Amino acid sequence: MAIISLPDGRRTWRRFTPSQQVIRWFAYLIGIAAFVWCWNRISEATTWFFVWDAPRIAGDILTRAMPPRWSYMENLWVPIWDTINIATLGTIAALMMAVPVAFMAARNTTPQMNVSQKVFRLIPPFMRPWLLTSTGEDSYSIGLIRPLALLVIVSTRSINSLIWALLLTAIIGPGVFAGIIAIAIRSIGFCAKLLYEAIEEIDHGQVEAITATGASRWQVMAYGIVPQIMPAFAGISVFRWDINIRESTVLGLVGAGGIGLQLSSSLNVLAWPQVALILLVILAAVVISEWVSAKVRGAII
Amino acid sequence: MSATATASELDLLLGRKWKKPPFIKRPWLRWGLIVGAGIYLALAISSVPVNWARVYEGLERGAAFIAAFTSPDFVSRWNDIYHGMMESLIMTVAASVVGILISIPIGLGAARNIAPLPVYMICRGIVAVSRALQEIIVAILLVAIFGFGPLAGFLTLSFASIGFMSKLLAEDIESMDRVQAEAIKATGASWLQWINYGVQPQVMPRLVGLSMYRLDINFRESAILGLVGAGGIGATLNTAFDRYEFDTAAAILILIIGTVMALEYLSGIIRAKVQ
Predict the structure, then answer these.
(1) Helix axes B200-225, B135-146, angle to 10 degrees
(2) Architecture of domain A73-110+145-300
(3) Is the ipTM of this complex over 0.95?
(4) Which of B60, B103, B148, B207 is least buried, going by the fewest C-beta atoms within 10 A?
(5) Exposed, middle or buried, B219 (CB in 10 Å: 0-12/13-18/19+)?
(6) Angstroms from A115 CA to nearest CA on chain B
(7) Sequence spans of domains, chain A
(8) pLDDT at residue B103, as a whole number
(9) Which of B149, B241, B244 is opposite residue A46, by nearest beta carbon?
(10) For the domain bounded by B79-274, which CATH number is listed?
(11) CB-based contacts of B58: which residues, under 8 Å, 6+ apart?
């Protein structure tokens, strides 16, 4: 916010000072230049003839795809069942692995040890935020396992489930099993991240109360921490299950089972009426799972 | 809850061993859920065909893949990797810019407190369609229509960004502080001035945060679009897997993870600056 003097001597209000404005315009300039450069690169790699022809092609595909081949539905029930299984079993497996990872990543539950200031100085500065869990008067608590847990979270989260599926079909062969494991691995990071944030936000008083009764470390966890994160845990599970239904519908494109297999084989033979039906089924599955997840989360929270 | 329990309820509990209260209170619902889940799990697990011999054979390849992470091969396919990564980044940046620009008017239209009902319905419809279709399916259709190459990927990511950004932006606008916006209106501001001075400053921090987050998501998604021919690093990765060149695949995955981490770090800094 700034008061600016105009050339004729009057004073007026502007939202930004001149130097702020210069910086903003410069940022916009860089942004636009970057976008134009990117667009040119995309444009060079594009066959524009196909693009000008696109409306005709789109219309052509649409007339071929309509009406959907409803009779193909009888071949789809088993793939739908497989798809639901991939999502559900994958989510369950992911949660089993995510819980220990989350407890290892949360600052208040990760195994930690106290070190003196002298030792703490030895740690390189960029490592400190990863390791430090709490600061005492002149001692520092560091968790050595925490960076490992965070690495698991980041690496499983950054890689799409289709890539995991691609990898797993190469390793353990195509099929539903590869899909389940792909979904499970991909979901670990997501669930563990949300869960460890929930663990870090718990009310410390309850934990202290349980500790004061002379409870062991595991009892503190079971009676002090777990009841507090249970609603978050249930919410995260359902939320991830919803996403997994969505993702498992396309895993078949790389051979990992489910309705995507039918989609890819129909696409390969250009059977557009079947493709239309499958897309409708996928759309319905996505909408229903989102509805279920919203209802369940509404009931929990 | 013990706080709401009456004295007679407490008398009943006296002298008995304390039991942890169950997460789901109604017993019929609890047992129904447990039995239902058990039946479902038994059915589901028994219907998954697992070829353990094949899995056992694969363990060796799995070990080879994990070992490849210790010696990733960036060199022998560097040209392909470089072009794939550049294409992914280019698609990501271009699609994020276009997606965000388009999602701002749609986000405004999808906020019930500033848009009239017909506009609201149309914009919510666009958001719903964009969110219901997954990137990869959109990419398949767009590749069929526009041909192979990054243009299809760019359009896919832009389309997906619109649904995501508009929905979250609209929710943020709906939960904004009405008083500030009304104060601007009371000065006699036009509609555009009202949006610019009353609404925009309130949602700007969140919009910047969301944009950075979407940039991050778009990059991750761009890594798979190549599988269906929509450009980017996915095609290179697919080829590497098909040829069992695990060291090259490991190099690509490390680059993807590294880029995602760098983007997350960057967005953390920018969000901290804006908020």
Answers:
(1) 70
(2) Orthogonal Bundle (1.10)
(3) no
(4) B60
(5) buried
(6) 28
(7) 1-40, 73-110+145-300, 112-143
(8) 92
(9) B149
(10) 1.10.3720.10
(11) A171, A172, A173
